[in-house]
Amino acid sequence: MSLASVTTFFAAHAPDIAVERYAASTATVALAAAALGVTPGQIAKTLSLRLDDEVVLLVARGDARVDNRKYKDRFGQKARMLNLDEVERETGHPVGGVCPFGLARPLRVFCDVSLRAFDVVFPAAGAPDAAVRVTPDRLALLTHAEWVDVMQAVAVAA
Question: FRET partner for 149 with CA separation of 20 to 30 A, picked from 14, 136, 139, 141?
């Protein structure tokens, strides 16, 4: 169902973007980066969060972590991840395939500015072996996302 809803989403809104399936799991940032042959930062991870009584999605570069101070300054509260059993019910996607496309119901989506470090990013596509290739700005446009700056800066190795 989830992979199908993502495929249907792209057929309707961006037929030029193909949902790709992989022989290896893409369920975590590390696994996805290895399967796709890209850096962990290029994996666009989708975090499912509770904001007051609302569920929202935050899409960020795969190697970044939530900066608690920035998050609280922006949203007025501490970041609260959904429990694993809530994720699929709220998004329509299984853990490891969560993405902002083809959702079970409309959810607000936020894209962290950390994604803009890359020309192309790879979010999941509704299954733990599927992903899409998209520019950060197109990802935000397709999901009606609001840009935010709530992730920690990623240290660059010298």
Answer: 14
